[in-house]
Each structure stands twice: as structure tokens, then as C-alpha cells.
């Protein structure tokens, strides 16, 4: 059974291929980003990663309706860790596209994404100190989003 998030991922992948001309082999769904920070390792799945010629280009966080804004910072942290210059957060109805390095909003529609023929993959500049902060931010998000609640007493 497909979740609302799965449906968004399918629509976005189809959009990238049919409307923006990205080859299917450039689109990786459910990419397992392995991160180590402060002696702890964890996996933060990336919903859709567009990788061109071995370079991470676009990180797309797909969201079920109503949680879009809460995932913006998580998506930016993941993009900065993997060096993807474009970060997208979308629930299909609403979309925000960010310049990863600056965090500046670049667009509010998937239509504003560059096509495969237009995209320029510029490396992002991030200090080691900032990279460590981004890993900690992602670790905190993963703890909140995937925490196990056990032994609650009422």
C-alpha cells in the first residue's frame, strides 16, 4: 500500500523524467545517506537524489501534505552534507526550491527547476565546522522523526 509520501515521490520522479528530461538512471529514490557525528552513525534516507556524472545535483525531500515547512531545515542539512547545490522540499501541491549553500529561496514550483540540459552543478563551499553543525542538525531531526516511544504509563 502506497503512503501519501510514496505517491509524491512517484509523481516527482515522473516529472523529472518526462518534463525536465532527466535520464532515469540519474534519479535515485530512497538513497541511504550514512552520516557519522560525535561517535554515532545513522542513516538518513534521501527521498530523491539526482546525480549527474557522479556528482550530487539535487536533493528532493518529498512530504505528505501539511508537513512541508517542518522539513526545510532537514533537507538543507542533508544537501549540505552531500554537496548537492539545489535543495527541494515538495508535497506536490506546494514546493520550495533552495540554493543549498546560502539557503536562499530560488523558486516555489517544480517548473522552476533547471532541466537536464540547463543544470549547472557548482560545488558548494562549506567549512568543516559548518559541516559538523549540519550533521548534528540532521541527527536531531532523525531522532525526532524516527524516535521509538515505549513503556508509556498513563
Summarize the structure in words:
With 154 residues, the chain is of the alpha+beta class. Helices cover 29% and strands 29% of the residues. The chain has helices spanning 4-18, 72-82, 128-145, and strands at residues 27-37, 40-52, 55-62, 86-90, 95-99, 105-107. The protein has a six-stranded mixed beta sheet, sandwiched between helices. Strand 2 and strand 3 form a beta hairpin. Helix 2 (72-82) packs across helix 3 (128-145). Mean pLDDT is 90; it is low at 147-154.
List keywords for this structure.
3 helices; alpha+beta; 154 residues; 29% helix; 6 strands; disordered C terminus
> Count the strands?
6
Spans where pLDDT lies below 50 across 5 or more residues? 147-154
Strand content: 25-35%
* Side-by-side strand order of the widest sheet: 1-2-3-4-5-6
Query: What can be said about the biggest beta sheet?
Result: 6 strands, mixed
Sketch the topology as an H/E string, one letter per element: HEEEHEEEH
| N→C terminal distance | 33 Å
The residue fraction in helices comes out at 25-40%
Structural class: alpha+beta
Tally the helices.
3
Work out the radius of gyration.
Answer: 16 Å
Q: Report the average pLDDT across residues.
A: 90
Shape verdict: globular
Amino acid at each position: 500500500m502506497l503512503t501519501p509520501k510514496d505517491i509524491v515521490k512517484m509523481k516527482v520522479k515522473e516529472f523529472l523524467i518526462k518534463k525536465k528530461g532527466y535520464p532515469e538512471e540519474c534519479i535515485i529514490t530512497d538513497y541511504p545517506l550514512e552520516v557519522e557525528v560525535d561517535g554515532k552513525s545513522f542513516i538518513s534516507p534521501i527521498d530523491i537524489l539526482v546525480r549527474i556524472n557522479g556528482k550530487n545535483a539535487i536533493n528532493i525531500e518529498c512530504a505528505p501534505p501539511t508537513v512541508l515547512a517542518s522539513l526545510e531545515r532537514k533537507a538543507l542539512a542533508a544537501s549540505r552534507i552531500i554537496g548537492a547545490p539545489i535543495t527541494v522540499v515538495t508535497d506536490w501541491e506546494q514546493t520550495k526550491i533552495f540554493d543549498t549553500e546560502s539557503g536562499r529561496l530560488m523558486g516555489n514550483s517544480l517548473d522552476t527547476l533547471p532541466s537536464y540540459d540547463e543544470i549547472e552543478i557548482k560545488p558548494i563551499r562549506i567549512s568543516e565546522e559548518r559541516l559538523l553543525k549540519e550533521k548534528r542538525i540532521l541527527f536531531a531531526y532523525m531522532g525526532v522523526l524516527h524516535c521509538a516511544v515505549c513503556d508509556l504509563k498513563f
